[in-house]
Amino acid sequence: MNIVKGKANDFSSVVQTLSETHETVENDTGPLKKIVWYLTENRDIMEKCKKIISRTQTVVTVMTSADGLSLIFNSTHKILDKLLEKGVEVKLCSPLDPKKNPLARELSYLFEVEMKDIATPVIFIDSDHESFLLARVMKKGDEKQLESAIFSDDPGLLSMISLLLMDEKMPILSKPLM
Q1: Same-domain status, 53 and 122
Q2: Do the domain assignments include residue 101?
Q3: What is the DSSP-derived secondary structure letter of residue 86?
Q4: How confident is the model at residue 143 (pLDDT cuts 50, 70, 90)?
Q5: Which helix (H) or strand (E) holds 10?
Q6: Are residues 56 and 114 in the same domain?
Q7: What 3-state class would DSSP assign to 169?
Q8: Is the residue at 88 inside a domain?
Q9: Measured between alpha carbons, how far is 129 from 24 in angstroms, rounded to an integer?
Q10: Are residues 12 and 41 in the same domain?
Q11: Highest mean pLDDT out of 25-34, 78-87, 141-150
Q12: Terminus-to-terminus CA distance in the chain, angstroms?
C-alpha cells in the first residue's frame, strides 16, 4: 500500500511540475519587445555608421548601392584601414564592378569586394553578426546623404534583416551579378 501511495505522490509531483513548466512556457511565448533605434539626421546616421564599424572585432559586412558605397567609403576609409590592420575581415557588396569602376577596384585591393545587383538606395552594415544599421541613401542635388536609418544590437532582428537582404537562395534586395 505504501509503495502505491509513494508512486501516486511521485506521479502527482510530476504532473504539478509539468503544469508549472507549461504555464511558464506559455507565458514566455507571447510577443517580445525588441529595441530598434531610429535616426533621421544625416550627421547622426553617419556617426552611428562609424561607431558600428569601428566596434567590429571579427567581420564587418557593408552592403550598399553605388551611391552608398562612395558615401560610406568617403566617411569611414580611415576606420576601415584600422580594422584591416587589426585583422578584421571587411566585406563590401555593391553593384560596382572592380574591373570597370575605379573606387571598387581600389577597394578590392584591400577588402573582399563582391558585385551584387543592389538597386535600392540603402546602406546595410552588419558588425560581427551582433549589431546592424540599415540606412536610406538620398540624393539632394549633387550631394548624397543618409535620410533615415534604423539600428539595433538585437541578433534576432539582425538575423531576420540579413535573411531578407542577403540570403543567396531568395534575394529580395540583392542578387549576385555574373
Answers
A1: yes
A2: yes
A3: H
A4: confident
A5: helix 2-28
A6: yes
A7: coil
A8: yes
A9: 30
A10: no
A11: 78-87
A12: 78
Total number of domains in the chain: 2
Phi, psi of 56 (to 5 degrees): -60, 135
Each residue of 91-137: pLDDT tens digit? 999 999 999 999 999 999 999 999 988 888 999 999 999 999 999 99
Q: What is the DSSP track for 93-138?
A: EES--TTT-HHHHHHHHHSEEEEB---S-EEEEEETTTEEEEEEEE
Range of the domain at 9: 1-30
For the entire predicted model, the pTM comes to: 0.77
Q: Residues in the chain, how many?
A: 178
Residue 75's nearest CA partner among 143, 150, 173, 127 is 143
pLDDT score of 17: 77
- What CA–CA distance (Å, rounded) separates 75 from 51? 12
